[in-house]
Amino acid sequence: MLKDLTSMVLRHTRPSRRHLTPELILRLITPECPLWNATEDQLPFKDPFWGFYWPGGQATARYILDNGEIVKNRQILDLGCGCGAGAIAAAKMCAKRVLANDIDSYAVTATQINAKLNEASVKTSTNNIIGNNNIDFDTILVGDMFYDEEFANFLFQWLRRLASEGKAVLIGDPGRHGLTAKHHQHISLLATYKLPEDSCLENRGFSDTTLWMVNS
Ligand SMILES: C[S@@+](CC[C@H](N)C(=O)[O-])C[C@H]1O[C@@H](n2cnc3c(N)ncnc32)[C@H](O)[C@@H]1O
Predict the structure, then answer these.
(1) Is any atom of ligand 1 closer than 6 Å to the C-beta of 158?
(2) Spatial separation of the C-alpha atoms in residues 198 and 32, rounded to whole Å
(3) Cα(73) to centroid of ligand 1, in Å?
(4) pLDDT per residue over 166-198, tens digit each?
(5) Helix 85-92 vs helix 105-117: crossing angle, to nearest 10
(6) Alpha helices in 32-74 (DSSP H)
(7) Which uninterrupted H or E stretch holds 168?
(8) Is-contact 119 141, C-beta < 8 A?
(9) What are the structural domains, with CATH classification, of the chain?
(10) What is the distance in A from the centroid of ligand 1 to the CA of 91?
(11) Are 75 and 95 in contact (CB under 8 A)?
(12) Per DSSP, what are the bridge partners of residue 75?
């Protein structure tokens, strides 16, 4: 089964550095891949979010690579890891322990492949942990998970609880509708980045991406 997932990810992606963190090489669905122009019914996967490096994830990984002290010797959870870039950036910047979590088995497979490509030590899990009480990590990375308002509200409530317990909660987001003005009262801006041209093409409408920290 794992072998099947791995060969599917390898077959449908290409290595790419055309993003905000070119020091990381990531297997992604690029314009050179047949799937790039595929319609939904031609896709062999349901929603291959892991095949793209989302603007929110790019902001998260860029910030970590430029400000390594935020993860050094810390225990990091990359929630909704997708291609795994946030987790990989944290591992590269000397985090003590890194868990990349995603409910999509293809995402954790892509993360394992990408971690190996970048010689980064990252563990993975597919459990749905949002809302759990015992989160044994001191930094939580959330890249681009505010695309659905109802889910965003539930997620944000939990992230605020984790922040109030003293955990550092970082949210990468290009301005999606789920991160509303109400949420903005509880987050502080850490950085804004211009997206590279390829990422703008992929994300029509977004030219910038930002990193926020949830207030404690
Ligand atoms: C838009 S993608 C972002 C991926 C990555 N963080 C990035 O920025 O490139 C959102 C990811 O969240 C994952 N996801 C959705 N619900 C989740 C949940 N309850 N727990 C963990 N991951 C989840 C999806 O499978 C998907 O990989």
Answers:
(1) no
(2) 12
(3) 25
(4) 999 999 999 999 999 999 999 999 999 999 988
(5) 30
(6) 55-66
(7) strand 168-173
(8) no
(9) 2-214 (3.40.50.150)
(10) 19
(11) yes
(12) 97
CB 21 within 8 A of CB 85: yes
Which tokens in the block code for residue 206?
């977004």
The DSSP letter of residue 144 is S
Closest CA to 51 of 8, 21, 20: 8
**Which residue, among 68, 85, 173, has the nearest Cα to 122 in the 3D structure?**
85
Ligand 1 center–CA 79 separation, angstroms: 7
**pLDDT tens figures, 121-169:** 999 999 999 999 999 999 999 999 999 999 999 999 999 999 999 999 9
> Whole-angstrom Cα distance, residue 174 to residue 125?
26
d(CA 206, CA 69): 29
d(CA 119, CA 103): 24
Q: Give nearest CA residue, ligand 1 atom 11.
A: 80
Amino acid at 158: W
Question: Does pTM top 0.90 for this prediction?
Answer: yes
- CB-based contacts of 92, cutoff 8 Å, min separation 6: 24, 65, 118, 120
Question: How far is CA 129 from its chain centroid?
Answer: 16
State the Cα angle at 34 between 124 and 14, rounded to 5°. 45
CA distances from 193 to 86, 144, 208 (A): 16, 14, 6
Closest Cα partner for 56 from 178, 215, 185? 178
Amino acid residing at 172: G
Gap between the Cα atoms of 168 and 157, Å rounded: 15
